[in-house]
Design a protein that fits this description.
Layout (H helix, E strand, L loop, with lengths): L1 H37 L10 H33 L5 H25 L2 H6 L4 H26 L12
Length: 161
């Protein structure tokens, strides 16, 4: 029993570390997004706009990819392993995340290239505002997913009598 509890604790801590690193990346994404939002009124940003947009697009794609290919998968596995499953809620959240992923991918496709970014510069403020709204909803859904599965305390050893 002790070894299974130890393995459970190890798994929980590994997922906790993964989730925390991912949330740190989210914070970086928010800072970059706010920086871009703040450039609306500037005729010439302090650093070339396309460089800032490219950096944002890179972090956005890294964040989205880590969510889909690592974090969500690990959370679903944790739910199964620790019997915290709510399949209907999990499916509903993951489905709703798909639309925000599509929006993020479209933004990246339109603005990752410096030539395209320059051509679409006038659309950038509106697209950033729209993306901010979408990401705000996404972050709330992701938080709901995390809280519904990855509880704040690691699993404890059950007392045996």
């Amino acid at each position: 029993m002790a070894s299974s509890t130890s393995a459970a604790m190890t798994q929980w801590h590994r997922i906790e570390t993964l989730v925390q690193a991912w949330l740190d990346e989210r914070q970086q994404l928010i800072v970059l997004l706010c920086t871009l939002q703040g450039l609306k009124g500037l005729s010439e940003p302090p650093r070339p706009l396309h460089k800032q947009v490219q950096q944002f697009c890179q972090v956005l794609m890294d964040y989205i990819s880590a969510g889909y290919f690592e974090v969500y998968r690990e959370l679903v596995n944790e739910a199964r392993h620790f019997h915290r499953e709510n399949p209907a809620l999990t499916r509903q959240i993951l489905k709703r995340l798909d639309s925000s992923t599509d929006e993020a991918l479209a933004f990246n496709a339109d603005f990752e290239n410096s030539t395209q970014c320059a051509a679409l510069r006038n659309q950038l403020p509106d697209r950033i505002s729209r993306l901010m709204e979408i990401l705000e909803e996404r972050f709330a859904l992701e938080d709901q997913l995390i809280l519904s599965i990855h509880q704040q305390e690691p699993p404890r050893q059950q007392a045996t009598h």
